[in-house]
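Below is how a single chain appears once it has passed through the pipeline. First comes the sequence as given, then the structure the pipeline wrote out for it. We keep one example in the README because the format questions we get most often are answered faster by looking than by reading.
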Amino acid sequence: MPTDEITAAAAGSWTLGDRTVHRMGFGSMRITANPDRDRAIAVLRRAVELGVNHIDTAAFYVSPGGTLRVGTGPVRYATELIRAALAPYPEDLVIATKVGFGYDPVTGFAEAVTAEQLRAQVEENLRRLGRDQLDVVNLRLGRGPGPVPLAERFGVLAELRAAGLIRHLGLSGARLEHLDAVADIAPVVCVQNNYGVDAYREQDAFVHACGERGIAYVPFFALAGTNREAGAGAAQGPAVEAVARAHGVTPQQVRLAWTLHQGPHVLAIPGTGDKAHLEENIAAAALRLTPEDLTHLG
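Resulting structure:
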């Protein structure tokens, strides 16, 4: 599949609140892994050149250590790399970030539950991105109920939204009951969950429910599946590999195309620190799977 003529626009568009984005976006977690700062900046600028106007990030995307548990050299925050590469930001660029978890090089990860902790994380994102307002803030939920009710934590973010620090809100690690719990507090424009062609398919009905409510569903680790931060493995599964051979594309491109085929409200945010991989990922925006392909993939 040629990549030099394909842009993110080939995936179509979706509206997050009042901001329209191409459904093929970019996830920034992996740009911190390499100590070569210029390499990350080049990848980000190339993504925008290829039509990406939706970038996912978080203040806890940092190396060395951090989410990836890799890296050497000076501390590198994805949010600061985005600022260095793209500020002053294009008018159509939407940057989505996350709060609810934070990372300290000494104490590690910690959940933010109080109003003070959540506001501090919002302010950290504003500072590192160099923004006066965050386009989208997703509240990252823990695996348990947590010590503070969801409605209370989401309410804090709703207050910050009313104050003008946040434009739109979303949830990450969410289920249908979470959407119901915050429905009367503030609009949810997107849900970010771990989901892919062979990972967490029990969410199929939830993906459909988000579409019915006009909420974007934004899978993370769509390429890595259950490998999560470790990245996609060499073995992609026989069904994925068979479809890739039939179309003359990579298994990773099939995974991204499958993601986009799950509904017009489903957005892709593949991440990479390599320009060649970036271009391959963007090219998947133009890959159209047949009904037979989708049946074979399950």
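The two ends are 24 Å apart (CA to CA).

See the next section for the split statistics.
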